[in-house]
Amino acid sequence: MNILIVDPSEPIRTLLKDYLTAPDCRVTAASSGEVAVELVQKYKFDLIFLDEELPDLSALKIGGLIREKIDPDVSLVLFTRNKDGLPAKQAHNEGFEVIGKPFALREIEETVEREGRKKKN
Predict the structure, then answer these.
(1) On the chain, which terminus has fewer CB atoms closer than 10 Å, C or N?
(2) CA-wise closest residue to 30 among 47, 46, 14
(3) pLDDT > 90 in the chain, percent
(4) Residues paired with 87 in a beta bridge
């Protein structure tokens, strides 16, 4: 499975990249939406984690752009500090999975496992 982590926090990117690295996973990280879009244009990702608070582009806009113009089948996950807020509700309505921050690593692992099972079917 190819995973992209888009988060402005280097410690979060490093933590998730190290945690998810396995023989069957390739994990790439980006600090901004612009870099994420460039990566998605070059490489195929199965799962993309997007932080709600990116410095340049809205995570919802990035997800929409990726699904509309690059890969309609990619799975998207929004990291948010407010799971009850409007962006989280919009993300859920647009087919994103929503994970609250701070998150438990087990929650990330379960998401990856679930998405991996979907891709195999």
Answers:
(1) C
(2) 14
(3) 84
(4) none
Dihedral sign for Cα atoms in the order 112, 7, 43, 63: positive
Using alpha carbons only, what angle is made at residue 22 by residues 16 and 25, rounded to the nearest 5 degrees? 80
Cβ proximity of 52 and 78 under 8 Å = yes
Angle, nearest 10°, between helix axes 105-120 and 10-20?
50
Q: Give the single-character DSSP code of 113.
A: H
Q: Is 78 in a helix, a strand, or coil?
A: strand
Q: What is residue 121's predicted lDDT score, i.e. its pLDDT?
A: 67
Spatial separation of the C-alpha atoms in residues 75 and 83, rounded to whole Å: 18
pLDDT, tens only, 62-114? 999 999 999 999 999 999 999 888 889 999 999 999 999 999 999 999 999 99
